[in-house]
Design goal:
heterodimer, A: 340 residues, alpha/beta, Rossmann fold, 2 domains, 6-stranded parallel beta sheet, B: 324 residues, mainly alpha, 15 helices, globular
């Protein structure tokens, strides 16, 4: 019995008691399943910043950890228990979360999926067009090369965004019969892993004429420069580090395809708009990517304008989405939500 | 009575901690009720199966680092099979996936026994092998789950003659968990085989000299771990409705729950009840951290700290008890 009491006492001390905040504004839940990745961190920061500048949100309830779809089901159900007014979610999978999303919307909670789509009809979606993202960059690369072989550096095996991008890449490949894929590899969207993989491939001595990356880009350019091989065209995302290289690395021809993490802020803006009574007619909003290349003068001007030394090299330079987000550059970099 | 209390002191302490956490949850969120318990129980299901499997191999003196990968294989296999067979084939799919789990576990165990390579090395290697197998079955999340099977773990039970006010608090997923664990564990722990598992875990040499077939016992323990991993993978497919080839965070979580649950790493001590309660404690903790909207970067630190404090505290109490 003594042990029982002691255990209880320790647990009480360890956890501490805290009261839940309550006021007039909205409480919004966030669910995200990749932690420690620059893109996702920017996404969460843009959600926080948008919630703060809206003035309509009292507090955020953030479930942000590395987990699978089942873990995200748990997080969404916990957010339902927490009694939030809306949930903005970056779904681990388009179909796996439908049960929990339906439970949320049946409880009167507004659900907005960002970045990737969900098939549950009661949720709203603000998404980057992942297939178009890959198609745009790959088409540019294949036209640039004309005829030859490319290294295809994908994202994470089995991830749905990677699958969508593969569809776009394969579509571009089918349209360019002169191009072959000499090496296909999964970077897992990890910088160190991607760099090791390209170094390993360079060491084999097999020639290649271009590299398509799924956003693990600046380390690939580093590897090409360090290993003293010809600088072939590289396609990456609009990450600050890579966009900087497009402007500064001698002889590098490349293209950055925008994939704004600020899509999170757009989703937050939509959730607040719906809570305030303005429900859009279409449940799905797709944000199409843009391509900037340093091969054209127009592209060089866009790249020069996008330079921002204040940003983390892993953050996309497109920190806002016109018509959706209303925060300033300083506010998203500060990464502060309401009540913080 | 006192002896019974002493013998199950660790489990009782965990139960008290769990009750305390439930009370805290109710304080934080006064609306917490049947739906919350249902959500909690469904979230705990894959963790509980992974933990049960891990507990058995730890009791036999080993460890299985491939448990999450085996869950992924079972998850995608069941999703692919159910997609092909639909509702009618449900029973067949369950049997096939459970057999697959037993086979994967038995392969792990046989490799350890035959090659004499340390279990940590073999199962680390098999972690990658099973991960690759899962990706071969489904290269991306896909497949589907039979609606009839999904209904098994959704919602509360309905028992004749019991009012709904009571049954609403008993989620089906909890009943499924208890039944599955009991069907395997209760007969096992009362059998000679169960005794062998504890004997091999506490002192393999002594067990060998007493005539216990050590190799066979180990292989059976790993096979059972594979069986529970298959149940875990099946529960993942049933809760999400798809199969995911990338393993989830179940390896570390199961080791944590096993240790918190009073099973000694090294073998021979502990049971299944403690680790399963530990799984629920860790899930409630996660829920409370979300309810309190604790900074997500801090919540992992809090989870780890509480675990370390509870285990250290338990160790201290056990030490004092021995001196007295």
């Amino acid at each position: 019995m003594k042990r029982l009491l002691q255990t209880a006492a320790v647990a009480a001390l360890a956890i501490g008691a805290a009261g839940a905040a309550s006021a007039d504004g909205f409480t919004i839940g966030i669910s995200n399943t990749v932690q420690g990745n620059g893109w996702r961190e920017q996404m969460v920061c843009s959600m926080k910043a948008q919630a703060l500048v809206s003035g309509a949100v009292d507090g955020l309830n953030i479930a942000h950890r590395n987990t699978d779809a089942a873990g995200q089901l748990e997080d969404i159900r916990n957010l339902i228990q927490a009694g939030v007014d809306a949930i903005v979610v970056n779904p681990a999978n388009p179909d796996a979360l439908n049960d929990a999303i339906r439970e949320a919307t049946e409880a009167g909670i507004v659900v907005v999926a960002v970045d990737q789509s969900v098939s549950e009809e009661s949720a709203f979606v603000v998404s980057n067009n992942q297939e178009e993202y890959a198609y745009l960059g790959a088409s540019w690369l294949f036209e640039q090369i004309g005829e030859g072989s490319v290294v295809y550096m994908r994202g994470a095996a089995g991830a749905s965004a990677d699958d969508d991008r593969d569809a776009g890449f394969q579509r571009a490949l089918a349209e360019n019969p002169g191009i072959t894929v000499v090496h296909e590899v999964f970077t897992g969207w990890q910088q160190d892993q991607g760099k090791q993989q390209i170094l390993d491939f360079i060491a084999t001595g097999i020639p290649f004429d271009g590299v398509w990356t799924s956003g693990i880009d600046n380390v690939i350019v580093d590897a090409l420069v360090e290993s003293d091989v010809p600088l072939v065209p590289v396609v990456g995302a609009d990450n600050a580090g890579f966009v900087g290289q497009l402007a500064s690395v001698d002889g590098l021809v490349g293209a950055a395809v925008s994939n704004p993490g600020s899509i999170g802020g757009a989703g937050m803006a939509l959730a607040i708009q719906i809570l305030q009574g303005d429900v859009p007619e279409d449940r799905m909003v797709l944000v199409d990517p843009a391509l900037w290349t340093n091969a054209t003068e127009e592209g060089q001007a866009q790249i020069a304008a996008a330079q921002n030394p204040d940003l983390d090299p892993e953050w996309p330079v497109s920190v806002s989405i016109d018509g959706w987000t209303t925060y300033s550059m300083e506010e998203i970099i500060a990464c502060r939500g309401p009540g913080e | 009575m006192i002896r019974l209390l002493q013998k199950n002191g660790w489990v009782l302490g965990l139960v008290a901690l769990m009750v305390l956490l439930f009370v805290m949850t109710k304080v934080i969120q006064p609306n917490f009720g049947a739906s919350g318990i249902g959500a909690l129980s469904r979230a705990a299901l894959p963790f509980a199966f992974a933990t049960a499997g891990m507990a058995i191999v730890v009791i036999v003196g080993g460890i299985d680092l491939s448990v999450a990968s085996m869950m992924a294989v079972a998850g995608v296999a069941s999703a692919a099979l159910m997609h092909a067979l639909g509702n009618e084939g449900s029973l067949l799919v369950i049997l096939a996936v459970l057999a697959l789990g037993l086979a994967m576990g038995a392969i792990n165990g046989a490799l350890i026994v035959v090659t004499k390579v340390p279990d940590i090395v073999v199962t680390l290697a098999m972690l990658f092998v099973w991960e690759g197998v899962a990706l071969l079955i489904l290269s991306a999340p896909g497949g589907s789950a039979a609606p009839a099977l999904r209904a098994i773990i959704t919602g509360p039970v309905s028992v004749p003659f019991l009012p709904e006010a009571i049954t609403a608090f008993i989620p089906k997923s909890l009943v499924v968990l208890v039944v599955c664990l009991a069907v395997v564990w209760v007969p096992l722990s009362h059998s000679k085989l169960g005794l062998w598992i504890y004997a091999v875990g506490s002192d393999p040499l002594a067990a060998f000299r007493s005539g216990v077939p050590i190799g066979l016992t180990r292989i059976v323990a790993y096979a059972l771990c594979g069986l529970f991993a298959a149940l875990g993978g099946l529960s993942l497919t049933l809760s999400t409705g798809i199969g995911e080839p990338i393993p989830g965070p179940y390896l570390m979580a199961s080791v944590a729950a096993v240790v918190l649950g009073g099973v000694v790493l090294g073998g021979g001590v502990g049971g299944l009840l403690g680790p399963i309660i530990a799984v629920f404690i860790l899930r409630i903790l996660r829920m409370d951290l979300t309810l309190l909207s604790v900074d997500p970067n801090v919540s992992a630190i809090i989870e780890g700290t509480i675990m370390a404090v509870v285990v250290m505290f338990g160790g201290l109490v056990a030490l004092r008890g021995r001196r007295a």
